[in-house]
Known about the structure:
Layout: H1 2-23, H2 42-51, E1 69-76, E2 80-82, E3 88-90, H3 97-103, H4 113-124, H5 127-130, E4 134-140, E5 145-148, H6 158-171, E6 173-175, E7 182-187, E8 200-210, H7 213-220, E9 235-240, E10 257-260, H8 268-282
Parallel strand pairs: 1-4, 1-9, 8-9, 8-10
Antiparallel strand pairs: 2-3, 4-5, 5-7, 6-7
Helix pairs in contact: 4-8, 7-8
Amino acid sequence: MTDESDASSTSSSGSSSEEEVQAQPTKKQRTVPPPLEIAPTADAAHSAIQKQSASASIIGNTSNKSNRLIVLLDQAKLETIKNRKGNYELLNCDDHRDICKKKLKKDPKEFRPDICHQELLALLDSPINKAGLLQVFIRTSRNVLIELHPSIRIPRTYKRFAGLMVQLLHKMKIKASDNGTTLMKVIKNPFSQHLPVGTRVYGMSCKGLLYSPHNLAKQLVPLDPNSSDEGQSQVCFIIGAMAAGHVTTEDHPYIEKMFSISEYPLSGASAINRILGSIENQWAIV
């Protein structure tokens, strides 16, 4: 009897204690969000790309891909830096002058990503690009190679362009939000492996052989972009996107010859407009 009464009292006390526990209001547990992942730097992105195998072109199976004019914007100053708030920004001479001088020990005038922005607008706004006859690549000063889809629309303002470039250098790919088309992509070096077989490569520099834009297009570019003549080779122009310096054959040993289109130093965007305008006239693109 004693054991049974003790067991019953124990069970009753246990059930009462459980009721007390259940009656107590439970405290809301704070859900701690996962730590933010820090995006890799441009160097990390570049090293990751070097380990990847060469992938297919983002323009895919385009019918007139073999007839495109190819343009490489060389030595573009596209580098990212972490600001005091922990966000990444595109390094430029206006916003990061002290960092360029004190931390990087370089002249702030060298960091001009706006030059690449201006040249991209000149290229992608051109009638030759809208006709589907232009393919654009970018090679940065850190040797990061970027391929652009012809249908991409570059932001008109520099601030939005800088944000897009930071996203590209960290994620290594930019896709369209509506259909998932890859618009910009970091690809593997060297640049020569992305050129079609037989492509003739020419560099543009104020120290090159002087030609008028009309004569340059007449001498170097095929007369008809839709011609299937095997004797007509595809053409690639390498144009500088840096604040100072020149395109050199040391960086691009496959350059056949260097050319100039003016007696005066021109901005990259101005030179692009003159070159593309003469080719558009030759190809009857209005």
